[in-house]
Design brief:
single chain; alpha/beta; Rossmann fold; 2 domains; 6-stranded mixed beta sheet; 4-stranded antiparallel beta sheet; 10 helices; 12 strands; 33% helix; 30% strand; globular
Length: 257
Amino acid sequence: MLELRDVDHRFNGNLALESVSLRVSAGERVVLLGTNGSGKSTLLKILDGLLTPTHGSYRYQGEDISPKRLRERGLNLRFRREVVLLFQNPDAMLFNPTVFDEIAFGPRQLRMPDVEERVRHWAQTVGVAAHLHKPPFSLSGGEKQKVCLAALLAVEPRLLLLDEPTSALDPRSTGWLVDFLAGLRITTITTTHNLSLAPELGRRALVLGENHRLLHDGPIEGLLGNLDLLLAANLAHVHKHRHGAVEHRHWHAHDWQ
């Protein structure tokens, strides 16, 4: 479905990604791990065509994805329909006067049929049907996230990119999202640095290190048992414990968001 070759990216001269190469096949559920600042969000934005690699190439379904190619109307319309990104902060995605209009925006722009039917279906599916005539800004954080997700799924994408989708959710909403994503039959790439949640989000793990390089690409099970790799990626840490006069050290996975 997609391929990156030797991708580098810099912001104002500062390195964000270095020599990242990977392939993702249709139907895969991939979890992208790394500590804050490792380049996870940058990588998703490149995959969504919002950023251009400073060096290297990105191909989607055999097509080069670049600013020049995305100015071609046919490719642009297909790519924007098939590849969608759920931002970490839902407020960055909301700009319509009602929830209905928010979910309808993509299908309207792409001139898709049965817009109202699509809106009502996805609003019901994610649980925001009761809010269709409310301003999206009046909803809770979890409800906003659901509206954004419905708006993306309403265009029937083939690749869903999710940037820390549980970071603002309470435990109940997190459980709902994990179950919901597991039921989708599309390719997903989800970022997190929550190791306990990672196996629920994908069977294949990609790990970006603090050096902005890909440190691991393989089964999630092989990652979770590799303490050296987790420590190198700053996804685990070691600290001292004292029990009376006895002091010893333990390692701990980072399960915070």
